[in-house]
TrEMBL record:
Protein name: ATP synthase subunit b, chloroplastic
Domain of life of the native organism: Eukaryota
Family: Belongs to the ATPase B chain family.
Protein species of origin: Liparis auriculata
Membrane topology of this protein: Single-pass membrane protein
GO cellular component: chloroplast thylakoid membrane; proton-transporting ATP synthase complex
Amino acid sequence: MKNLTDSFVSVGHWSSAGSFEFNTDILATNPINLSVVLGVLIFFGKGVLNDLLDKRKQRILSTIRNSEELRREAIEQLEIARVRLRKVEIEAEEYRTNGYSEIEREKVNLINATCNSLERLENYKNETLFFEKQRAINQVRQQVLQQALKRALGTLNSCLNSELHFRTISANIGILGSVEEITD
């Protein structure tokens, strides 16, 4: 117990009553600093992260609603095309002797065009959802990282001397460079 208290306060070794001394024992002070930084990040970052996720959720839901509307329109177009197809089939019976092959070609073209439209709309919906999801993830990552770095740098600025401060800034610039390369 004596050794534990000596690592924090060494009363017998004070040269004068008014002096102040930093504890440079990294193993004794680092867990405390890390727990404070993590606590601050969790406390302040949680609300921001929740707000960002709620906004992204609303945008994604809006995109889904738009995609569903496009799907309904495509289904309506398909029903219209089916009505036209029935009409063409009736006319085909009437004109079977005169132009059966011409009518059959028109029918196939109409079905193919409708199928192609449905496929394009479905592909557009899927691409939009994937893009919005990726964009939301990237935005949340960037904003959380930026806020965490701001708070951590603020804490470090108040605790470090100029030499340690310079080394920490250099290390963080290197980390940010590698994070930007990864996100690109």
